[in-house]
Amino acid sequence: MKVDIIGDVHGCYQELCSLFEELGYQSIDGIYLHPDNRIPVFVGDLTDRGPESIHVIQIVYEMVVKHKKAKYVPGNHCNKLYRYFLGNKVQHQHGLETTVMEYMALNEKVQDQIRSQFIELYEEAPLYLPLPEVNAVVAHAGIKQAYIGRYDNKVKTFVLYGDITGEFDKAGRPIRRDWAQHYQGDAWIVYGHTPVRNPRIVNKTINIDTGCVFGNKLTAFRLPEERIVSVPSEQPFHPDKFRSFPDS
Predict the structure, then answer these.
(1) From which residue to which does any coiled coil extend (predicted)?
(2) For site-directed labelling of 33, which of 13, 61, 87, 140 has its Cα 20 to 30 A away?
(3) Can you say whether residue 135 is alpha, beta or left, with left for phi > 0 and alpha for psi between -120 and 50 degrees?
(4) Residues 118-122: contacts with CB within 8 Å, 24+ apart?
């Protein structure tokens, strides 16, 4: 097995297509396939903030659910959109408002299709994805070594939101512990969630959310090659959206 794990897309459909092409995939019948049968793995947060969340939902559904040519784990934005589509009361902020605006502009028939596609995609997805063939685990916000194999609410919160403290910084962003510093496992933990300027490797963890929706780049991590591939973003650059670390 050879995989290409793709960071947070956040509605950046054009950049996703560019990344697939950079990785050597070919567009065939509306989906991307690799001549060497490589498998794309989406690390979550497909939608919100970016310009084409609906297109991202459509292509990921086609590749993951319909054609079984890709894999996907959900992120916190995916969880919120799922709850919206179920009819739950969720606040239209932090990017959800952009996806809802796109969705509401569609006719009723297409709305029903998109809603059912995303619900099916989300409900079929694992909370996190062990990939023993390439010695890796894919989890949206990461996962502690001790949590691998567990699927309780505590693990769900960690996988979707990271190692949150319940406190917020001056900008209103959740304060999260730097769990990667304490990871001592042998398998790669490949995750996103926290935008960083460049992929961040700590121990055997790698954060590949390089803030495409904030104007930086969209990144993939190739395994077993352990190779990073990125394409530039077409979105306006927002330097204040990126987290820096003492080791970065």
Answers:
(1) none
(2) 140
(3) left
(4) 118/57, 118/61, 118/81, 118/82, 118/85, 119/82, 119/85, 119/86, 120/61, 120/65, 121/57, 121/60, 121/61, 121/64, 121/65, 121/72, 122/74, 122/78, 122/79, 122/82
Nearest residue to 94 (alpha-carbon basis) of 155, 10, 168: 10
DSSP 11-70: T-HHHHHHHHHHTT-EEETTEEE-TT--EEEE-S--SSSSS-HHHHHHHHHIIIIIS---
Longest dimension (CA), the chain: 50
The count of other CB atoms within 10 Å of the CB of residue 33 is 18
Q: Are strands 164-168 and 174-176 parallel, antiparallel or unpaired?
A: antiparallel
Q: Are strands 188-191 and 205-207 parallel, antiparallel or unpaired?
A: parallel
Residue with structure tokens 């690390």? 43
Q: Give dist(CA 215, CA 109) in Å, integer.
A: 33
Contact at 8 Å (CB) between 100 and 49?
no
| 11-35-40-181 Cα dihedral, nearest 10 degrees | -120
Mean pLDDT of 117-143: 98
For the stretch 170-203, pLDDT in tens is 767 777 789 999 999 999 999 999 999 999 999 9
Q: How far apart are CA 197 and CA 209, in angstroms?
A: 8
As a whole number of angstroms, the distance between CA 187 and CA 158 comes to 18
Whether the upstream peptide bond of residue 40 has omega within 30° of 0, thus cis, is no
Q: Taking residues 80-108, what's their average pLDDT?
A: 97
Q: How confident is the model at residue 245 (pLDDT cuts 50, 70, 90)?
A: confident
Are β-strands 3-6 and 217-223 bridged in parallel, bridged antiparallel, or unpaired?
antiparallel
